[in-house]
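Section 5.1 Outputs to date
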Amino acid sequence: MQIGIAGLGRIGAGMARRLARSGHPVVAWNRTTSVTTELAAEPENAGAISVARSLEALAAQLTAPRHVLISVPSGAATAELIEAVAAILAPGDVIVDAGNSNFHDSQQRAAALASRGLDFLDMGVSGGIWGLQVGFCAMVGGRREVFERLEPAIVSLAPDDGYLYCGPAGAGHYVKMVHNGIEYGLMQAYGEGFDILHASEFDLDLAAVARMWNHGSVIRSWLLELAGDAFAKEGSDLEGIRGWVADSGEGRWTVAEAIEHDVPAPIITLALLQRLRSRRDPDSFSDRVLAALRNEFGGHPVKPSSDGS
C-alpha cells in the first residue's frame, strides 16, 4: 500500500527504506529536500520512493484515502507538523504519529482530527537505528478499522510478531511510554553491574563478559549485546565517553503515571533520578555505560570525555 512519510531523521528514513524495500510505494517529504532526494536515489529504493518537495506535493502525490506517517521529535515539532499535514488532507485520510508523543497529547489530537473528518493512529516504535535491519517493534493505538487498513504496512515495518494493536487513541503511545520506563531500569542495572566489575581487583575484559553472558545466562538481552559492542569499540574503560545521560521524556511520564495510579515503581523512578544526577556529576562509570548504550541503539550523541561543558 502507498504511504506518505513526513520527517526523514534516523527513524523516519529507516521506516521509508523498510517500507519501500518491502514493496510499498513511499512518497517522502523532509524539511531539507536534499535528504529526500538522496534517499530516493539509493539503488535499493529505485522507483519505490518518490520525492515530495512540499507538503502540498506530498498530499497531491498520494491516492485517497491518504496515509501520512509523521516521524519527528515529540512536542512542538510534532504538533506543528500534524497541523500542517491535517490542513492539506481531506476527510477519510489518516495521520500516523510514529514519534514518542505523550499519550495525553495523542488522545487530544485524535479527537481534534476526528472533528475534521480525519483519522489518527499513535504508533510507538522501538528498534532505534537498527529498525531498518531487524524491524521496528510497533505499538499502535486508534480506531481498530483504521489500524486494520494500515496493517499491511505495519507488518512490513515490524519484525515477526513484533507489532500489536493496543486499543483506542493514546494506547499505543502509552505502551511505548512504559516500555521506555522499563528500558531505564534495565539500562541502569547493566550500568551498575559493569561499574562493579570495572571497579574490582580483576582486570576483566568487559566486552568478553558481555558476550559470554549473552550465551545461556538469564540476563542475556539485546541491550547486553550492544554493551558488548560498545566495550569492543571503546575499550573496557569507555574512556572516550562522558557519563552524561539524557532522557527524552518517557521515563518522566512513566513515573508520573505510576504516581497517578498509586503504583510503586522504585526501580524506574531511581533510574530516572540517576540520569538527572549524571548531568551534575558526569564521572560515574555506570553513566558512561548508559551513554554508550543510548548511542548504540538509538544513535543518540555522546559527550566526549574531554568536553568540559
